[in-house]
Give the backbone structure.
Amino acid sequence: MANDERLTLSVDCGGLFLKSCVLDESGTMHSKPSRIETPYPLSPDRFIETIKGIADSLPSAYRATVGMPGMIRHGVVISTPHYMTKSGPRTKIDPELQELWSGFDMQNALTKKLEMPTRVLNDAEVHGAGIISGSGYEVVITLGTGLGFAIFYGGSLSPHIEFSHAPVRRATTYDTWIGEHERRRLGNAFWSRRIRAMVDELRPVFMWDRLYIGGGNARCIRQADLDRMGDEVVIVPNAAGVAGGVRAWTLEQYK
């Protein structure tokens, strides 16, 4: 498939899986969604080679969007806790990997490796790009391995907040409190109530016009809990994490 068909390669990078597809400007997929396990240990070089392998396995695109976990500022990795570990989520930070990742200009590196313009954002920000209305104060939460978080105002992307690292109970962070490991331990019924409690606690903090909840585990929220969260809370499909790859290019970012 030729590059002049203006296709976008979109890669949603999680702690456990890397999901990808190629889309046209209307968001229609031009390849079957692909998913591979996130390899560990994961240095920046290995990450780049993995993304290159994904790109080579899919139809040719003229640009790429890569969403990855952590604090990303203008394509530069400030911190990416999952990828700094020895064996993935819930394992120890590797000091050598931490040093390699900190301050790494992933956007520039991937642009060169893929030989096409590439935008690197936090994965929740890409997810949000695919679902926001573009009006008012909109907050996006993604539920997966941990907690993803993004804020948009008037359709523009606000500076990223690593809300997942905020303490919620003593030394427990939101990432741990509502992450996949805890969902498995509690079961969906108790975990779903915990999500409702989190939303109730965050509402007076952010006073959003609309809250979107996505990610792979959003489907585990019970309807009874969703009904009690309020009309401004919307559950969105996990596919938005990839579909947002096109709209991410239209986002106005903070300076």
Remarks:
- Residues 197 and 229 are 9 Å apart (CA to CA).
- The chain has a mean pLDDT of 93.
